[in-house]
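Provenance and format

Records in this collection were gathered into a single text stream. Each protein contributes a sequence line and a token line. The two records reproduced below are adjacent in the stream.
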Amino acid sequence: NCYATGSIDAYVTTGDTFSRVGLLAGQILGQTKNCFSFGTVKVNGNQTETYIGGFVGFINSGSVYNSYTFAEINASGNRVYVGGFAGSNGHDNYSTGTISKSFSVALIESGFQYGNFVGISKGSESGCYYYTESATGTQNNTRGVAQTFDAFLSQDWIISTLGWDFETVWT
């Protein structure tokens, strides 16, 4: 169980070849479950590839379960991949990740490509939902299932749809 709240304002320089930015973590390699993040991410990516997510920037051989984010994301630059939850869930020659029973509520402003739930994915997402307040940029995938904002405020919906435990875990 973990959480992160706050704000990130980053400038990624040309010399960097692969950057990852997320409110909870830049990259996840192991298992993360029952976590949340809340805040804003602002990144100017001026380099080869930048992955930005409201929860995590890049999932590489990792898994995320029963987690959520409420995020405002503002990203600019070339080859910047933005996702309401994860910037990338595996990509190209890297190992894939798994996300399940998780959701994102996001406002996305991207100068390049975005996905409402994940920016780019070679991994798997199951039981994942999103609400995107508004988005700019080019949408490049349809991972996750759209949901109304009110659903994410309803403990009944979260229990019946995601199966989360509000007795012992989310107390």
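Adjacent record:
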Amino acid sequence: IVDEKNLSDKTVQELNVLDCLIIDNFNNKVDEKLLYSIFNQSKQIENFIVINSVHSIKKNSFQLKDLKSRTDSFLFIGIDLPTDDLLKVIISKSFSDKQINIDPKITEYIIKNIDRSYEKISEFLKDIDEFSLSSGKSININLIKKVLEKWKNIERIIVKSLEKKILTKSY
């Protein structure tokens, strides 16, 4: 697994010992000639490339026509945000694995108040578990509200920090 910003000529050389190269956080900020070299080398040695990106690589506009041709042949597999039903299953399974029975109303409350991403729900459930264990309290709506408030406070701190950096750089 190589982050896009760490791609280099060395990556091309290392392809010979890999079955699959995973390029993570692809934002189309890599040199096109380097990316084309990586794709060509991979094709020649018949290994695989997986590109993790928020957007399909096919939607990028490349200057190199050969690179565009290569990316047009890629298979796009999208992962959608979880549905309410899937979130219910994830939450129920997480608590069930810890032998915790949870009221369906709490599950509904969590779904309505948390970001819809697999990562966020996983972090949130971990925080609930840790908060419950550290406080010695069972998981109930009040505990859920406290964890949500903690998350909102963290978001406020991050936003203020970013605003401060932006203001500092603008002078």
